[in-house]
Amino acid sequence: MISVDQLVVSFGGFELLKKISFLITPKDRIGLAGKNGAGKSTLLKIIAGQQPPSEGSVVVPKDIRVGYLPQHMQLADNYSVFEETKKAFDEILHIKKKIDHINHQISTREDYESDYYMDLITQVTELNDRYQMVGGSNFEAEIEQTLTGLGFKRSDFSRATSEFSGGWRMRIELAKILLKKPDVFLLDEPTNHLDIESIQWLEDFLKGYAGAVVLVSHDRAFLDAVTNRTIEISLGKIYDYKANYSRYLVLREEHRETQLASFKNQQKMIEDTEKFIERFRYKASKSVQVQSRAKMLDKLDRIEIDEEDNSRLNIRFQPPERSGTIVAECKHLTKKYGDLLVLDDIHLMIERGEKVAFVGKNGEGKTTLARIILNELEYQGTMKIGHNVKIGYFAQDQAQRLDENLSVLETIDQIAVGDVRTKIRDILGAFMFSGDDVDKKVKVLSGGERSRLAMIRLMLEPVNFLVMDEPTNHLDMRSKEILKQALASYEGTVLVVSHDREFLDGLVNCIYEFKDRKIKQHLGGIYDFLKRKKMESMKELEMKSKPDAVSEKKEKPQQPETKLSYEERKEINKNISRLEKQIEQAEEDITALENQIEAMDEKMSKPETASDHAIFEQYEQLKTKLSEIMQGWEKNLEEYESLKSQKTW
């Protein structure tokens, strides 16, 4: 379908791609893999016709439609979300415009018997047939389905695109490309701006899509779910396997081991042959054999070992000072942006050593709560940071906060202390800053390179509570793995906002789900959480589709058919413990307030204070506070009793 033939890309004498060739066939699901700077995005641009190669060619048949989503693009902001997305249906809209124009002519003309009038009737009939054939009757439903799948609410459809962040506008562009239904999708990091639910929707869409898909992604779980072929670009060459990414890694290692064994055997044979030639070079009786073996060596197709960048370093975060048991705790926390309520009366407690993830759809308040913990935003309610807690923060725009006039080496040298200073170049090398790269100014680095540099800075800071907002968005597989290992062995507390399932898997042990301005705690790993979520959604669908069964259950209560799992019991026990503490604290506060109110009653009964308005105001404030705490106490008590009853299942 698409042919890439002997492609070369050169920059100032450096060959990024060295005569690579491959075919993209129908039904291919190709994942382009490789470290940052290997040439993945460049290759997609060339296939999409956005950039010419230095040598070689890309042949795309004329009847093949290509849909290309780059990492970065210029976005227009002159339309609503729905109107902008509707542009995907240019052909349908063009046909509809023609139909409307001809219908107007038909309705205003009176020469019913003329050839021209009959020709108009024929045209509008053919156009209507074409309109129905290309999906004109249901394209608006497709737009709605795609936008909601990518995380938009129906109330967003009429909003101007200028009201949305860059990430959400990229979703609109992705929706347009998906709706055009090209023969080949070229997608460059499509999951960077998606939350977990939207990523799963996109996975399902691409898996069921009839055309071919070529995508660049550093999301291993996404690659494994979508792709059936992997092309890795490494040191200018490509390695092409009919397998998803995880299977490819195994096959590549097996191939390399076989290649290495063959190389060693051939080198032994060459060495023995050269020794024979050297030994008998001047003996006339052996001249024929010497010449024969010399010719054999000349004609020998010598095995070459694929170059491989194996430099790795087991980097660890700096050993943190010990913090208090409670690292961060919020009660009755509410956050509004003007009239928009983002977080409503939430409770959260993070303890020392926990590795916590914030997950949920974009716009549900994950980053907002992270910034409240950092004391960057105002809020209602209480937020307490524990004793001796020192916070290190990695923001989504952390890469943009670096000093652009410093070099890579200077940026790290600024914060490195002690023995670490002797290992700066090794650390930089582990994150793919080697040789002359360390002398580059920050301002010339790519987005991925800046993200890696910002991550190194954070790893070297002496903190005991790491708050990280989408730390993997611009990191390649290798950098993500290094970071994940470092976080796994980190002795401090970690809070990470992320949609990268592979990164979170095996790293976090507690998940807070953000939904409808509330948060819900789940103990266990990310796939345990997703499995429970899927089961919950399936149960909801089942209940909606079987109302009779629901009503029967209401008439006749049934005991749960299965007992709770260990993780579910563990989660309930933790929530019971949390509620017990909150109830106990509330009861202490209630007792203290009642004593204060009683003392105020006695004071107010005296004649000398009867006209003191300040005392009356204080008295009313105490009563209001008591009422609020009583309401919270009742709410926690109800939840406590409910969890206690679940525990007996």
Automatic annotation (TrEMBL):
<dbReference type="Pfam" id="PF00005">
    <property type="entry name" value="ABC_tran"/>
</dbReference>
<feature type="coiled-coil region">
    <location>
        <begin position="569"/>
        <end position="643"/>
    </location>
</feature>
<keyword id="KW-0175">Coiled coil</keyword>
<dbReference type="InterPro" id="IPR037118">
    <property type="entry name" value="Val-tRNA_synth_C_sf"/>
</dbReference>
<keyword id="KW-0547">Nucleotide-binding</keyword>
<feature type="domain" description="ABC transporter">
    <location>
        <begin position="328"/>
        <end position="541"/>
    </location>
</feature>
<dbReference type="InterPro" id="IPR003593">
    <property type="entry name" value="AAA+_ATPase"/>
</dbReference>
<dbReference type="InterPro" id="IPR027417">
    <property type="entry name" value="P-loop_NTPase"/>
</dbReference>
<dbReference type="GO" id="GO:0005524">
    <property type="term" value="F:ATP binding"/>
</dbReference>
<protein>
    <recommendedName>
        <fullName>Probable ATP-binding protein YbiT</fullName>
    </recommendedName>
</protein>
<comment type="similarity">
    <text>Belongs to the ABC transporter superfamily. ABCF family. YbiT subfamily.</text>
</comment>
<dbReference type="InterPro" id="IPR017871">
    <property type="entry name" value="ABC_transporter-like_CS"/>
</dbReference>
<dbReference type="Pfam" id="PF12848">
    <property type="entry name" value="ABC_tran_Xtn"/>
</dbReference>
<keyword id="KW-0808">Transferase</keyword>
<feature type="domain" description="ABC transporter">
    <location>
        <begin position="2"/>
        <end position="260"/>
    </location>
</feature>
<dbReference type="InterPro" id="IPR051309">
    <property type="entry name" value="ABCF_ATPase"/>
</dbReference>
<keyword id="KW-0067">ATP-binding</keyword>
<dbReference type="GO" id="GO:0016887">
    <property type="term" value="F:ATP hydrolysis activity"/>
</dbReference>
<feature type="region of interest" description="Disordered">
    <location>
        <begin position="540"/>
        <end position="564"/>
    </location>
</feature>
<dbReference type="GO" id="GO:0016740">
    <property type="term" value="F:transferase activity"/>
</dbReference>
<dbReference type="InterPro" id="IPR032781">
    <property type="entry name" value="ABC_tran_Xtn"/>
</dbReference>
<dbReference type="InterPro" id="IPR003439">
    <property type="entry name" value="ABC_transporter-like_ATP-bd"/>
</dbReference>
<keyword id="KW-0677">Repeat</keyword>
